[in-house]
Design brief:
Layout lengths: L2 H10 L11 E7 L2 E8 L1 E3 L4 E2 L6 E2 L4 H14 L9 H4 L12 H5 L22 H9 L16 H15 L3 H13 L5 E2 L14 E4 L2 E4 L14 E3 L1 H10 L8 H7 L12 E3 L4 E5 L2 E10 L2 E8 L4 E7 L7 H11 L1
Antiparallel strand pairs: 1-2, 1-14, 3-4, 5-9, 6-9, 7-8, 10-11, 11-12, 12-13, 13-14
Length: about 325
Amino acid sequence: MSQPNEKVVDALFHDFDQADAPGAAVMVIRNGKPILAKGYGLADLEKKIPCTTDTNFRLASLTKQFTAMAVLILAEQGKLSLGDHLSKFFPEFPQYGKTITIRHLLTHRSGLLDYEDHIPQGTTIPLSDRDVLFILQRQSKTDFLPGSQFHYSNSAYALLALLVENVSRRTFPGFLKERIFEPLGMTNTAAYVAGLSFVPNRGYGYASARSGWELSDQSLTSAVLGDGGIYSSVADLFKWDQALYTEKLVSRKMLSDAFAAHSSQSDFKGSGYGYGWYVGKLRDAEHVWHYGSTCGFSTRIERFPGKKLSVIVLANRRDTPISPIVEKIIELFW
């Protein structure tokens, strides 16, 4: 990579590259190689540990692509069909579950109510995926006829994680480790369960406050795994990105299905939605991407498979506008 390009990228991350502030990590991948990989700022303000390419950030909704892949692995093994209904795996689910398919869950077309809006008052212990199931079992309807609309749904992906457990007879973190992370050499990536998981090189989340940066690492919904509970680094996500060009995890046919717009619309203009990915075109090039946002982290991955170009940015700051930075990096390396 030319030195001028690196200086331009450094300038884009100027606000992150401070001695006393939470930071970010970036990687640009072209033709199977990282042509830019850097960390900026701090992963841990208290211990003054810098962000590096090995820092593990909470991925937030970038997790959904891994949850979807776990489901696709089971589908390819013939252990489930994407046309199967929710009630097949959760017989105790209310009547409305009989019209929701796995494909509806994967593509945010289930109509399930947002569990975040129905957390019982006074709840202080972080919710699990199973708590999400209990919340949804107390509802009597969907927001719309399943399959008729797109509505981004963390509820759906929490149920998909439980479905993976039911079908595989493994814990969701265990299945991910055994079937995705270890085969790809993503040795520092984990679905985080407090008290059970160890996240090496862990970045902690922060939010901007009047007094400066405040720790904002966990919330009531942070322990829900299927919609956002994975920690990973740009170094490990490089391995994930490269695996998506191969049949290491599932067949090319299944991958093609994952990157197809099963919902032609989404909550972003110009993008449809596949299985755990927003899909569309940018400058007539195939474009698959996702964002993540949670109490102390902002994340984004953009892939252009036809150009063999990917950009990954992970930040341990809440609600930080990394999308404009990513867009400028794409422009720079296009």
